[in-house]
Specification:
47% of the residues are buried. With 401 residues, this protein is an alpha/beta fold. It is 42% helix and 13% strand.
Length: 401
């Protein structure tokens, strides 16, 4: 039986072009990009070519691209930069504020909670019932002590697209009135290569990207850093990446990352239109089954632009989401209960609860995420499996009289 993979938000099946690009670079470009000999110069040229290619895909400048081991490292680099500024400045007063949305990925949520333990004042901005953070709500949380604002671009569990540019404008308007500068960071992992994204038009100071969400290799990512931003880099020990991220670059992975990004960007419009049609088909099928709740419940069936067409969450209370995942897995279909980084944690329902979803419903949530290579027959097979599985699991879960 051929398995059906509908967990693209956790990772994407590798693109053959990425695998070949990584293999070729590993064999032919083995020199250290920092070395001055021929092998080193060849590796350096390939590294900068990959940097330019990725920058072009994100609408950024090559010098704004810092290669990392992934988005988790990129996110932590931003938080560490703020920490370093705080503790390196003898005039800094405790209680500086960080504003973070309640729906952030764990790789930002947890580091910011650690900042709270170190004396930062952390303000959490909750989304509305659709899972979208409103600029006016975020602005209410800003004050003269604020040094960092964190807001992801596409939520990894619900697909809700956040108005990052509008929120950044609200932050800049505030600082224009009060003076100073607030660093704004956006996690663009679920957006880049899937929906239209331009780093300069987002207005953010920094943005994190990941290779394996695009079909590139794991262990590669990037932090985009605006020329206007002045982070205080924490890592030391080498001059690589413009003294921003020391350590010999993983050239083979970086090369494959850039090739994957170019491939996805070139076909973005066609892939997006196709994903919209598949998602409409998926939502209609889910809503036709008694007991299934699409989350959020006001998500429209036809081209709802508030959401990425690649991600859908639904619930069938009181059936636990884990039960659904296992049942579908036995039928050859891979879905998840949300972020892979949250699946084994106690706060795995944090994002849905933040937008007002009751705990009992959030515990039942399942995420379905599609990709450019998902086909209509896979959506139909999933819908058929769901129509058979839901009544059975509801009967089993029904309390005995």
């Amino acid at each position: 039986m051929k398995r059906i993979f509908l967990d693209w938000a956790s990772t994407a099946p590798p693109l053959s072009l990425a695998v070949e690009a990584q293999k070729k670079a590993a064999i032919e470009l083995f020199g250290n990009p920092s070395s001055l000999h021929g092998e080193g110069r060849g590796a350096k040229a390939a590294l900068e070519a990959a940097r330019s290619l990725l920058a072009q895909a994100a609408g950024a400048q090559p010098e704004e691209v810092v290669f990392t081991s992934g988005a988790t490292e990129a996110n932590n680099m931003v938080v560490a930069s703020i920490l370093k500024k705080q503790f390196a400045d003898p005039t800094a007063k405790p209680g500086r504020r960080v504003v973070i949305s309640a729906i952030e990925h764990a790789s930002l949520w947890e580091p910011v909670q650690a900042m709270k333990k170190m004396g930062f004042d952390v303000a959490v901005c909750k989304p509305d019932a659709s899972g979208i953070v409103r600029p006016e709500r975020l602005r209410e949380l800003l004050d003269e002590r604020t040094v960092l604002v964190v807001l992801m671009l596409v939520n990894n569990e619900t697909g809700a697209i956040q108005p990052v540019a509008e929120c950044v404008a609200a932050v800049r308007d505030f600082t224009g009135e009060k003076g100073g500068r607030i660093h704004v960071h956006t996690d663009a992992v679920q957006a880049f290569g899937k929906i239209w994204f331009s780093f300069p038009e987002s207005g953010a100071d920094t943005a994190s990207l990941s290779a394996h969400k695009l079909g590139g290799p794991r262990g590669a990512g990037a932090l985009l850093v605006s020329s206007k931003a002045r982070p205080a880099w924490l890592f030391l020990g080498g001059g690589q990446e413009g003294n921003r991220r020391p350590g010999t670059e993983n050239l083979a992975a970086v090369h494959a990352f850039a090739q994957s990004a170019r491939f996805r960007i070139e076909s973005l419009d066609a892939n997006h239109a196709r994903a919209v049609r598949l998602m409409e088909r998926l939502i209609r099928a889910a809503r036709s089954i008694p007991g299934v709740l699409v989350l959020p419940e006001d998500r429209a069936e036809t081209g709802d632009r508030r959401f990425s067409p690649y991600i859908l969450s639904f619930a069938v209370p009181p059936v636990p989401g884990e039960v659904f995942v296992r049942s579908l897995d036995e039928q050859g279909i891979a879905v998840s209960t949300g972020s892979a980084c949250h699946s084994s944690k106690k706060d795995h329902t944090r994002i849905l609860e933040a937008q007002g979803v009751p705990k009992a419903v959030a515990d039942s949530a399942v995420r379905v995420s599609i990709g450019p290579e998902t086909v209509e027959s896979e959506i139909d097979a999933f819908a058929a499996a769901l129509s058979e599985t839901v009544p059975l699991l509801l009967r089993i879960s029904k309390p005995r009289a």
